[in-house]
Specification:
Elements (H helix, E strand, L loop, with lengths): L1 H14 L12 H11 L5 E4 L30 E5 L2 H10 L1 H13 L5 E9 L5 E7 L8 H10 L5 E4 L2 E10 L2
Parallel strand pairs: 1-6, 2-5
Antiparallel strand pairs: 3-4, 3-6
């Protein structure tokens, strides 16, 4: 009986500790991710070739872009009005090979899986004026800087009303 009382004396104080309330408020990154999802943005999945190949099943993946014959490239025209979201998404999808390369670089450093949001300001000339890469899971890797450098080199169709602000979500899986 003494052992039981002695055991309870040690256990009861542990169960009576005040626990700090866990905040249900999402981080700014998660809030932005939720906003993009509500707006209908579908994240692009970038899989690891080393560790994650095939884990995601049938989803839209980053693939190396097909080799294009530059002789057949059409002369760009200026789009009247603002740049359509679909045109921005097309350019991003065409450049997924570079995004995948950035993830492979980060993976070699030991980065794992995570999400990123790439926010762009596109000038009417079709060039990228500013880039912001929000990737908390990769804050200690080269991924954000690499993505930012790649995105600055992307060329969009010229348009007359701008600038265009656009954010695109990515999910990196593997590592």
């Amino acid at each position: 009986m003494k052992r039981l009382l002695l055991g309870l004396a040690f256990v009861l104080p542990l169960g009576c500790e005040k626990k700090e309330a866990v905040s249900n408020v999402p981080s700014p990154f998660d809030q932005k991710w939720i906003e993009l999802a509500k707006a209908g943005a579908q994240p692009l999945f970038v899989e690891s070739e080393v560790h994650g190949s095939g884990l995601l099943g049938e989803v839209r993946r980053a693939v190396d872009p097909p080799i294009q014959d530059t002789k057949l490239a059409a002369v760009p025209t200026i789009l009247p009005g603002p740049l359509p979201d679909a045109d921005v998404a097309d350019v991003i999808r065409r450049n997924l090979g570079g995004v995948k390369g950035c993830y492979q670089l980060a993976e070699r450093e030991g980065a794992g899986s995570g999400k990123a949001i790439v926010s762009l300001e596109i000038s009417p000339s079709g060039s990228v004026a500013t880039v912001n890469v929000d990737a908390p899971a990769f804050s200690n890797s080269k991924l954000p800087n690499c993505l930012s450098n790649r995105a600055r080199a992307w060329t969009f169709p010229k348009f007359t009303q701008g600038p265009k602000h656009f954010a695109y979500p990515f999910i990196f899986s593997g590592g």
